[in-house]
Hints:
The structure is a homodimer.
Chain A: H1 11-18, H2 22-29, H3 37-50, H4 56-63, E1 68-74, H5 78-81, H6 85-97, E2 103-109, H7 115-122, E3 129-133, H8 140-148, E4 152-155, E5 166-169, H9 171-184, E6 190-194, H10 200-215, E7 223-225, H11 230-243, E8 249-252, H12 255-267, E9 277-279, H13 286-289, E10 296-298, H14 301-316, E11 324-326, E12 329-331
Helix pairs in contact in A: 1-2, 1-3, 2-3, 6-14, 7-8, 9-10, 11-12
Chain A binds a DNA duplex through residues 10-12, 20-24, 26-27, 30, 32-36, 39, 54-55, 57-64.
Amino acid sequence: MTSPTGRQPTLDEVAKLAGVSRSAASRAINNAAHVSAANRLAVERAVRELGYVPNVTAQALARQKVGAVVLAVSDHNKELFGDPFFGQIIAGVTAALEDTDLDLKLLLCHPERGHDRVRRMLRPPRADGIMVMALRGDDPLQRMVEKSGLPTVYGGLPLHGQPEWFVDVDNRGGARVAAEHLVSLGRRRIASIAGPADTHVAVARLDGFADALSVAQLDHTLVEHADFTREGGAAAMERLLEREPGLDAVSVASDNMAAGALQTLLQHGRRVPEDVAVVGFDDLPIGHLTQPSLTTIQQPIRSLGYEMARLLLAVVDGEKPSPLLLPTRLVVRESAPARVSLAAS
Amino acid sequence: MTSPTGRQPTLDEVAKLAGVSRSAASRAINNAAHVSAANRLAVERAVRELGYVPNVTAQALARQKVGAVVLAVSDHNKELFGDPFFGQIIAGVTAALEDTDLDLKLLLCHPERGHDRVRRMLRPPRADGIMVMALRGDDPLQRMVEKSGLPTVYGGLPLHGQPEWFVDVDNRGGARVAAEHLVSLGRRRIASIAGPADTHVAVARLDGFADALSVAQLDHTLVEHADFTREGGAAAMERLLEREPGLDAVSVASDNMAAGALQTLLQHGRRVPEDVAVVGFDDLPIGHLTQPSLTTIQQPIRSLGYEMARLLLAVVDGEKPSPLLLPTRLVVRESAPARVSLAAS
DNA sequence: CCAGAGACCGGGAGCGCTTCCAGTCCCTGG
DNA sequence: CCAGGGACTGGAAGCGCTCCCGGTCTCTGG
């Protein structure tokens, strides 16, 4: 009833009702300068009366910006979709966008299909900026993102190249702490189950593992790669046991894989943590359920999303913010408790 | 280099290069009628040469549509964010949108904060249609969605009201099958851990439970509610054991809660499935990890997303599609195996 | 008393596209 | 041979907003 026509009221109608020009109304609404107090008030009243909401599309066209940012994710990545990661990232991003009036668009990129769609989407002016996550080594998404020329923030580093803006978790540091924990427990034959070699996160965690073992002057070559899934972790554990039946600890690059490794260890009659201590990475809910519960490295997933979005907002505003490295934290549970006497072998 | 100016080429430039009017170019590009074969070809070449991509914003303004749909989710809902649900829904939706040139916007609605943001977003013309999920009983999001007047598809029914278009999982049927399974195992004192009473999904699953027990002429009032979390499930199981120490089966409305219930049962010295058989709901990965593994009801999450989007597309196109109820399936694992002799009590 | 600096105002030209419409042209059937 | 119906064409009017800019008005300081 408030709007004369059935459609949404337009700026013109507001201006007319307020008795000012459209320009003045526009200024008042975007509270820019050069509007008298009286007119500002009149416009505000008209806005309220009509229930006026600016037409974002028209704004976008006139301002030459879109009013939306996109979160692009490679969806071959079990890492994000088998886990609760995704929801948390989104929650963080949303929180950062909360008082921004920017919309969040989602772009899932199948590595093979849907390239056209991605390309169209990334082509300006379909978004004002882009957050990109979970890239693989030679991900076509990365190229498309780079070609788009849009302000871009990486969530987690890509394998190749050093982007100007990114937010990452301190994977290397976290993995180092995990391995140090095992060393401090007196373990000497320490293996690792690493992630896929074509992801930066896997490489960084493996580096951290190597860092710690090198300092302790231990061998750090007892490594098997897997794909971040439970099944993959179980299989990798099999291979490790075959290579080195006498291993007394294993640092696993994800909780999912650690859960699989745990199963394999138990199947092979190893007691955890007495015979083999295990630490995971991620701190997923799953870590509470394994038998025994999982010592792991906690990473701030929600913050990752939040900081990505904040960084992007800054970049879009023309600032030159610094990249961010978020801290991790050791969470000690049963699979590698603080002090446990090494079982006599 | 292809574009004369640094900016994206416009339709005018395409038309000029092709030697036709802008109208003709537009028609050719949207392959509408009334374009000669020659002109169509010329336009296509010009498009290719210039690397022209239509400006969606301008299209949106002229066409009076946005070119995007929104997925709105209430984020108080652990159900979606503690689980891998979310990623799968998104994957399904994306698949359905794949060859549509519609963008997917995401709207997370904190039940208390951010109402303005939601309202702005839902106000046309910020999206052409809306999918809404995970509503609670008196969810403000539902009111806002209804007031928006946008074509709406519900993913999962709301507690109140019967929306014209929805896609839901056959929760009632699934829960009935779960309970029937327990009955068929010879269990007679069957309890249930239900979800929050202010969600339709919880109510439906509880109804299904009651359906089955009524047919079997068993008491179906041994019910405790919880919040779909593991901790909640564990606590509810405590209460059930207190009320009825002699229960021999429990049907749990989610795998997460079932995992918690399992822990409680073991703590109380109950053997599963010998003393108490347990079935969950959802078929999350977690069900493989519990000790024993979890018999559960599988629901097609990805399909839910896919069908929601398909339905929405139909509605947006002015069709009147039918709502959908997706089937569930019993997955038998250790916590309630096909045949197990009831332990002598 | 007057020049000049602001504050404020509204007209109007876009932003890039769609779409209506009046006008051509050609080709058919009577 | 001619009327009439398509197929095709391009001009022009939007879609709803922003923002530049020339203009008015007021107030200050010299």
